[in-house]
Amino acid sequence: MSIKLDLRKLESIKNDKEFQLLFEKGMKFAEEIERDDAIGFTDLPEEDRYVKQAKAVAERLPEGIDTLLVLGIGGSALGAKMVRDCFSEELSKKLIVLDNVDPYTIHNVAKSINPEKTVINVISKSGSTVEPISQFKFFYNLFEVELGREETLKRIVITTDISKGNLRKVAEELEILSLEVPENVGGRFSVLTPVGIFPLEYCGIDTELLLKGALKQKLSGKETAVTGAVLDYLFYKQGKNIKVLFIYSDRLYRFGEWYLQLFGESLGKRFDRNGKEVTVGATGVLAKGVTDQHSQVQLYREGPDDKLFAFFKVNKKIDVLIPESFSQFEGFSYLNGKTFSQLMDAECEGTMQALENTGRPLILYQIEEINLETMGGLIYLFELQTAVCGYLYNINPFDQPGVEEGKLIAKKLLGY
Ligand code: PA5
After folding, report:
1. What are 235-284's pLDDT values in tens digits?
2. How far apart are CA 375 and CA 84, in angstroms?
C-alpha cells in the first residue's frame, strides 16, 4: 500500500481489549458510512462523471486562457489549494484561489490578472456565502468594465448546488456555465466533486489519477482509516486534547491545512446525536518538518503531555547531494556524501525518538512517494477516518452549526 500507518511504540495497544472493541465498532461504522446513500463522499472515487463534466465545460470556455481565478472559501477552496501546491510543476495555467476578503490581496489579484485571459470559477455549495459572493460582485464588475458583459459571461463558471441557492438562480437566469455540488457531499468532503475536480482538471492536473488513488485506498485501506480513528478517539478520551500533524514535506504542507479543517469542523461539536451536551473535539496543530523542530519541539517534549503526534514522512524523495565543501573545518565533514533526503529522514527519526523517549504518544504515516494517486489516497483515507471518528464520538461529523452563527451575525452587521 502506498500509505502505511506505523504505530511504532504504540503497536502493543492493538492487544488492548478496549482498542479491539472500538476497532470492531469502527469497522462496522466504516461499512455503514460507505453504504449510506445520504453520505456521498464515499462514492466519489468510482465517479468519473465529474471529470467528464469538467472536460466538457473546459471545451466551452474561450481559447487563450492562462489563469483560473477560484472564488470560494473553506471546503470550497482548501482542496484545490492543497493539490495545486503539491503539483505546481504540472499546472498548465495559473490557478489562483482567493479564499479571503482582505482588500490588500483582492487589490493585488485584480492588478495581476488580465481579464481577457482569465476565467472566474465561483464556488459555493450554499450559493450564499458572503466571501465568494462579495468577490464575485467585485471581479464581475472589473471584467465587465474591461471586456463588456457578453465576453465576461463567457469567462465564468459557477459551481453550486444543483437546484438551490442564490448562485444557481444567477447561473440559470444569465445562462452562465455551471457545475453541481452533489447534495450529499459537504464542503470539506468535496474535493473530488466539481469543487476540486474542475479547477484542477482545467489547469492541467490529471484528476483521474486522484480518483484512482482514492479508489485504491477505499478498496484496501479501511483498516488504516479505522485504526487512525480509534487512536484519535482513545487518546482524546485520555486527555490528549491536541493532535499535532508533523509533516516532513514542503509539498504536503497544504494537505495539513486541508486536513485540519476537515478534522476541526467535523469533530469539534457541542451536542451528540441524542442532543446531549458533550463539547468534544481535539485541537489540530500543524507543524512542518524539519522547520518547526526549531520552534515547536521544545514545547512538545517538555511542555504539557496533552498531545497525540501524527508524523508524515515521504519515503521516495529526489536525491540532492551535500557536497564536500569546508571539510577541512570541524563539524562539516560528517555530511560529506550524504543527501538532503538522508538528512531529512535522520532529523525526522531523531525528533520521533526524542518524543517517544519522553513517553509522548506518536504514530507515523509513511507515504511511499508523492504523486497524484497517493494524494487521492490521502484524501479518501482521512475523510473516512474523520467520519468514523465522529461516529465513535456519537456526534454528526457532517454539519457545522458553530460556523453558521458567526456567518449570520456578520451578515446582520452588514444590513442583510
Ligand atoms: O466544510 C464546509 O462545509 C465549509 O467549510 C464550507 O465549505 C464553507 O463554509 C463554504 O461554504 P459554501 O461552499 O456554501 O460557500
Report:
1. 999 999 999 999 999 999 999 999 999 999 999 999 999 999 999 999 99
2. 11
CA–centroid distance, 188 to ligand 1, in Å, is 7
* CATH number where 315 lies: 3.40.50.10490
C-alpha cell at 203: 489547469
412: in domain: no
Look up cell 503531555; give the residue.
305
- Which residue shows C-alpha cell 474561450? 62
Q: What are residue 96's phi and psi, to 5 degrees?
A: -100, 130
Q: Are residues 270 and 127 in the same domain?
A: no
pLDDT tens digits for 98-114? Answer: 999 999 999 999 999 99
CA of 338 to the centre of ligand 1 (A): 45
Q: What is the DSSP string of 240-260?
A: --EEEEEEE-STTHHHHHHHH
Query: Residue 295, CB half-sphere, CA atoms under 13 Å: how many?
Result: 8
Q: How far is the CA of 369 from the centre of ligand 1 (A)?
A: 30
Global model pTM greater than 0.85: yes
Residue 408: inside a domain: no
CA dist., res. 282 & res. 263, Å (int): 9
- CB 158 within 8 Å of CB 171: yes
Within 8 A by CB and 6+ apart from 90, the residues are 204, 205, 206
Q: Is 265 marked active-site?
A: yes
User: Can you tell me which residue has the cell 468535496?
Assistant: 190
Q: Is the CB of 125 under 6 A from ligand 1?
A: yes
Place of cell 482548501: 78
Residue ID of nearest Cα to ligand 1 atom 15 = 124
Q: Specify burial of residue 4 (Cβ count, 10 A radius: 0-12, 13-18, 19+).
A: middle
